[in-house]
UniProtKB/TrEMBL annotation:
<feature type="domain" description="HAMP">
    <location>
        <begin position="175"/>
        <end position="227"/>
    </location>
</feature>
<feature type="transmembrane region" description="Helical">
    <location>
        <begin position="151"/>
        <end position="174"/>
    </location>
</feature>
<dbReference type="InterPro" id="IPR005467">
    <property type="entry name" value="His_kinase_dom"/>
</dbReference>
<dbReference type="Pfam" id="PF00512">
    <property type="entry name" value="HisKA"/>
</dbReference>
<keyword id="KW-0472">Membrane</keyword>
<dbReference type="Pfam" id="PF08521">
    <property type="entry name" value="2CSK_N"/>
</dbReference>
<keyword id="KW-0808">Transferase</keyword>
<dbReference type="InterPro" id="IPR036890">
    <property type="entry name" value="HATPase_C_sf"/>
</dbReference>
<dbReference type="InterPro" id="IPR036097">
    <property type="entry name" value="HisK_dim/P_sf"/>
</dbReference>
<protein>
    <recommendedName>
        <fullName>histidine kinase</fullName>
        <ecNumber>2.7.13.3</ecNumber>
    </recommendedName>
</protein>
<dbReference type="InterPro" id="IPR013727">
    <property type="entry name" value="2CSK_N"/>
</dbReference>
<keyword id="KW-1133">Transmembrane helix</keyword>
<dbReference type="Pfam" id="PF02518">
    <property type="entry name" value="HATPase_c"/>
</dbReference>
<keyword id="KW-0812">Transmembrane</keyword>
<keyword id="KW-0418">Kinase</keyword>
<dbReference type="GO" id="GO:0005886">
    <property type="term" value="C:plasma membrane"/>
</dbReference>
<feature type="domain" description="Histidine kinase">
    <location>
        <begin position="235"/>
        <end position="449"/>
    </location>
</feature>
Length: 455
């Protein structure tokens, strides 16, 4: 409310000040005419015989001329030499005199009272060829002040009432306009911290609707993030329960055994379980890190050929241990993409790991890079067991593992691949190998110049 009252108060003060100066000018204009008439009447009684000035005004004429029931009137007539011809010698003389027949007016203080003075500097009318004289007529300002008060009341009072009425109307309008917002504030304030459902705001001003919509969008996104976190925590707890239980069982067995050979065997199982748990935790962290709502993308240009080659080379020792032929086929030309090379490397690692893990000994895994006018293709093919058609829609889900497989896995590798592909606006597809065995994963990245051309 202060935002409304303060500007109105400032406007009112400015209006009062402006009205005061206007009314003062009007009052002075009215009563200055009387002072001018007195000054010119006095000029009629100034004489000059060719040698010196004279002043001829009877006492009765003086009383009639200066008769005023409310204000005191004083006058002073002087020559340019400073000689006083008539009037009150204590009236302060004006040092700067105005030449010409027009009368000048100014405010001053005489005998402790504010006065209005008319100053006429002119030649006597009875002897125009003589030197000019200065006539000052001073009047106290009682009539002027009373007239100004009357005018101010007539001018300012309606304006004050108008501004007050406007203030009341504005206050009521603002109060009615803010009522839906207060209702909205109460509704939001009474909500539980767990309630992230959209705000159903009715009768809110049109200017506020975009804000309510933006808040609802934000709450929807926050609800999605919290839902993901809840599901992620629940799934993580479920997935960690088995390896942790295995660690505990192998550790208890090692503690109970007294035979060194059995202890060594238990420790070997313990190490395998710990390694499996470490890989699971690493994949869980990678999955959380690559969730689209957790990523602030910092895309930079990189060559897909170089990134894929380095990633494939890191898997050569693993393929060698399993007697798998791991090959790499680069594109004929550099493949420049915009993205995060580190995340793309992580994607390739998961695809190659998945291929090596499920390809039998003596098999083949090949990483190829192809490029056409619109896309760059990362292709990872193997000759392992073919993924059934009915399973292909779910292989990119978290913790989903193929039935009938004996390989250890968390079911997170392909989920990570899918998240990184989504981050890079890439499409991922699973196809059958041409010879009837194995699987081929193809990730198609948009080429930067193709995106710009389409835009």
């Amino acid at each position: 409310m202060r935002l409304v009252l303060i500007p109105l108060s400032v406007i009112l003060l400015i209006d009062i000040a402006g009205s005061y100066f206007v009314v003062r000018h009007v009052a002075n204009s009215v009563y200055d005419i009387e002072l001018n008439e007195i000054a010119r009447e006095l000029l009629l009684h100034v004489t000059h015989d060719g040698r010196e000035f004279g002043f001829n005004l009877s006492a009765e004429a003086e009383r009639t001329l200066f008769l005023d029931e409310e204000d005191d009137v004083f006058y002073l007539i002087t020559t340019d030499d400073g000689d006083i011809l008539a009037g009150d010698p204590t009236l302060p003389a004006r040092k700067k005199r105005r030449n010409g027949s027009e009368t000048a007016y100014y405010d001053d203080v005489f005998d402790g009272k504010p006065v209005r003075i008319a100053l006429l500097h002119s030649q006597p009318l009875v002897h125009p060829a003589s030197e000019p004289v200065t006539i000052q007529v001073a009047e106290t300002q009682g009539k002027r002040d009373r007239y100004m008060r009357t005018l101010l009341l007539q001018v300012i009072l309606p304006q004050v009432l108008l501004i007050l009425i406007a203030g009341v109307l504005i206050w009521r309008g603002v109060a009615q306009g803010l009522a839906p917002l207060r209702k909205l504030q109460h509704e939001v304030g009474m909500r539980s911290h767990l309630d992230l459902s959209p705000i159903h705001a009715t009768d809110v001003p049109g200017e506020v609707e975009p804000l309510v919509g933006a808040v609802n969008d934000l709450m929807t996104r926050v609800d999605a993030v919290l839902g993901f976190q809840e599901r992620f925590i629940a799934d993580t707890a479920h997935q960690l329960r088995t390896p942790v239980a295995g660690l505990k069982a192998h550790l208890e067995l090692a503690l109970r055994e007294t035979d060194f050979t059995q202890v060594q065997r238990a420790l070997g199982h313990l190490y395998t379980s710990a390694e499996r748990l470490s890989r699971l935790v690493s994949q869980l962290l990678s999955l959380a890190r690559n969730e689209p709502h957790n990523v602030v993308a910092n895309f930079q240009p990189f060559d897909l050929n170089q990134v894929a080659l380095r990633a494939t080379q890191d898997w050569v020792p693993h393929a060698y241990k399993k007697d798998i032929d791991l090959g790499f086929e680069a594109s004929e030309k550099p493949v420049q993409l915009n993205g995060e090379a580190v995340r793309v490397t992580e994607m390739i690692n998961n695809l190659v790991d998945n291929a090596i893990r499920y390809t039998p000994s003596g098999g083949h895994v090949t990483v190829r890079i192809l490029q056409d006018e619109e896309s760059a293709h990362l292709i990872v093919s193997d000759d392992g067991p073919r993924i059934p058609v009915e399973e292909r829609q779910r292989i990119f889900e978290r913790f989903h593992r193929l039935l009938g497989t004996h390989e250890e896995g968390s079911g997170l590798g392909l989920a990570i691949v899918h998240e990184i592909a989504t981050l890079h606006n890439a499409a991922i597809a699973l196809e059958d190998d041409t010879d009837g065995v194995g699987n081929t994963f193809t990730v198609s990245f948009p080429i930067p110049h193709a995106e710009q051309h389409q835009a």
